[in-house]
Amino acid sequence: QVQLVESGGGLVQDGGSLRLSCAASGSIRSMGWYRQAPGKQRELVAQITSGGSTDYADSVKGRFTISRNNAKNTVYLQMNSLKPEDTAVYYCTAQSVYGMRAWGQGTQVTVSS
Known about the structure:
By secondary structure, the protein is mainly beta.
């Protein structure tokens, strides 16, 4: 059973920074972050493979950085220059080497103007 535990969400001012963490169990191929704002569908924010290749949504490029510690099965999302439109519940996700997809419980990120 693959489980994910997220931490690091909170309230921050416009232009501030937050760092999200997500610890996974099992053998993981890829990890990433999605977010869902009120009235919106869940969208991909960033993803990273075990080899270190990354992909970002256009809306966060240059502001967010995803990184990974493979030995600890942990993924991080460093969020800088946060904007009110970044306000959402952020969900960690991971795909195991067996093809199973797991989701974290979600962590609230709120950016005030």
